[in-house]
C-alpha cells in the first residue's frame, strides 16, 4: 500500500480484516497505526514481493507516486492499482504497462474518515473499478475479500461518476454543518442543534435502506407546500449562501415531488419562489 492517509490506512485495515496479506503501508513519515508500522523514505524491499500494489495518495501526487512505483523492483506482472475516482494519470500508467504491469483503478465509494472503522464501512459498499483485464480481476478479488460490490467506472463519464460520488458522500456532511449553523442562528443551543441535525440526517438516510430516493422524500416541496417554502426563503434572505443552497435543492426536489403526485400548480409556485437570480456583473 503506497499512501498512509485516511484512505490508505483505512483500506489497509479493511484488507487485513478480509484476510488479504498486507506486506506494508508506506507514507510520507514513519508511524504506527494499530497493527501496521508505516514506513517512509525510499520504497521498502517488500514491494518486490507484492502481487498487487495499491496507490492511495492525493490526486495531485498520483503521477509522481506511480512513477516511483514504476522505478521500483516490482515482481514481474505485478498489478498496480490506484484509488482515485477522478484522476486519469495516463502517462504514468502507460509507463507501468510498458514494463509489463497491468494497471487500473480501485476506487472505494466509502467516506473513509476513520481508518479503524473502514472494515465495517467497506463491507457491503461499492468499489469503482476499471483498467486492464488483469487489473479488473485483481480489483474484483480485493472487493470480494472485503465484502464489497464492484461497479465499472464509465470510461467517458469518469468526471460525472466522481461528481456523483462527491454529492453522495461529501455534501451531506456540508449540509449537516449548514443545518446546524442555521439552527444555532435561530436560537437553538449549539450542542442540541448538532445532535438534532445528526439524528435527523441519519433517519433520512435510514429511509433509503427501505425505499428509493424518489419514494423517501418528505417535507414542504414533496407536499407542494409553497407557503412554507416562502417562509423559509424569508428567513434565509439575510444569508445568501444558505439561501442559494435552499433554492437549488428545492428546485432539484421538484421532479421528485411531481412523481410522488404533488399538485402541479403548487409545484409551479415553488419553482417560481425558488428561482435563482444570476448575480449582477
What can you see in these coordinates?
The protein is α/β, with parallel strands linked by helices and 281 residues long. The chain is 52% helix and 12% strand. The protein folds into 2 domains: 6-156, Rossmann fold (3-Layer(aba) Sandwich), CATH 3.40.50.720; 171-273, N-(1-d-carboxylethyl)-l-norvaline Dehydrogenase, domain 2, CATH 1.10.1040. The chain has a 5-stranded mixed sheet, sandwiched between helices. Strands 1-3-2 form a 3-stranded mixed sheet, covered by helices on one side. β7 (126-131), α5 and β8 form a beta-alpha-beta unit.
Question: Tags for this entry?
Answer:
2 domains; 8 strands; five-stranded mixed sheet; alpha/beta; Rossmann fold; N-(1-d-carboxylethyl)-l-norvaline Dehydrogenase, domain 2; 281 residues; three-stranded mixed sheet; elongated
The assigned structural class equals alpha/beta
- Going by CATH, the architecture of the largest domain would be 3-Layer(aba) Sandwich
Strand content: 5-15%
Instruction: Please report the first level of CATH classification, the CATH class of the largest domain.
Output: Alpha Beta
